[in-house]
Each structure stands twice: as C-alpha cells, then as structure tokens.
Design a protein that fits this description.
By secondary structure, the chain is mostly helical. The chain has one domain (about 25-175). About 80% of the residues lie in helices and about 0% in strands. The protein has helices at about 5, 10-15, 15-25, 25-50, 60-85, 90-120, 130-155, 160-175. Helix 4 (about 25-50) crosses helix 5 (about 60-85) and helix 5 runs antiparallel to helix 6 (about 90-120). Keywords: Membrane, Transmembrane, Transmembrane helix.
C-alpha cells in the first residue's frame, strides 16, 4: 500500500516548505524592523502609562523594557507570518495578514515574556522542580499571568501601539511580494 506522500506530486509535498522559505525575512530587515518595532512598543507602553497617571512611576522603565523586548522578539516572527499568509495575494490581503500577524504575535510574545517574569517572581513559593505540585503551580501561575496580561497589559498597546500597527501593516502592504 502506497503512502499518501508517495501519491502526491513533488510540488505539493514541498509547497509548504517552499512557501515558508520564500517567507523568511532578510536578517537586516528583521533586525532593523525589530529595533523600530521595539521602540514603538516601548513608547506605546510609556505613553499609555502616562495617560493613565499610574501611581507606581518606579515601574515605568521595567514595563517599557518588557514591551520593547516583546516588540523586538515579535517583529521577525510577525513578519514571517505576514509574508507566509500573503504570498501571491493582493495588497488588501497583505494589509490584513500584516495587521493580524503583528497584533497576534506581538501580544503573544510580550505576554509570554510577562508570564516568565511573573513565574520567576512566584517561583520562590513553589514546590521543588519536577514534582506534580510544581507542574500544577507552573501551569496555573503561567495561565494566571497570561490572563493578567490580557486584562491589564494589552491596554498599554493603545493608542500608540494601534497607530504603529496600522503603520507597519500599511508599510507591509506596499512591499513587493
């Protein structure tokens, strides 16, 4: 009995890999874009904090750094996802792909960084690593951190982050594909 892969034409088997390869961003573009996106996300958090008149001004720098790191790490991944989703499609589809990719990846990566930091803080009171109790504590602490970021952290991306998201999506839609 022949496998499903043996029945598929060669082009279909390598289609995903070829599409992924064509979607890879240029390292310089990823680095420069990551730096710009990091600055935009840090500025977004900083402006949002100032607009909300936070009482804990000592934490502004650490929050801006968290969002900058999230932006820097998310840009190359979001660019890859946007290119992958928009290959061979119209400018409108490219804009939508970029808008979705940059929003989803930036929020996800920044949320994960927040969850790592959150977990590090609470690990002092957790059980020994590798135990069943520790696994439960790890899972539920991470889920609590992601929930807290979704409720409190995502709003720091407005209004500056939303404007930056629109700008990067417009830039991406105008790029040749």
């Amino acid at each position: 009995m022949k496998s499903a892969a043996a029945k598929m034409p060669e082009a279909s088997r390598s289609g995903f890999g070829q599409r992924l390869k064509r979607s890879l961003p240029d390292p310089v573009e990823a680095f420069v874009g990551g730096a710009v996106w990091a600055a935009a996300m840090a500025a977004s958090a900083f402006v949002a904090i100032l607009m909300q008149e936070w009482e804990t001004s000592a934490k502004i720098q650490s929050i801006a750094v968290l969002f900058a790191l999230g932006g820097a790490l998310s840009f190359p991944l979001a660019l890859l996802a946007a290119r992958f989703l928009s290959l061979g499609r119209s400018g409108e589809a490219a804009f939508a792909a970029a808008f979705f990719s940059f929003a989803a990846v930036t929020v996800s990566v920044t949320g994960l960084i927040f969850a790592f930091d959150y977990r590090t803080y609470y690990s002092e009171w957790h059980a020994d690593a590798g135990s069943i109790t520790w696994v439960f504590q790890l899972v539920f602490t991470t889920l609590a951190a992601l929930y807290q970021f979704a409720v409190l952290g995502v709003r720091l991306l407005f209004p500056v982050g939303f404007i930056a998201l629109f700008a990067v999506s417009l830039w991406f839609a105008r790029m040749p594909r």
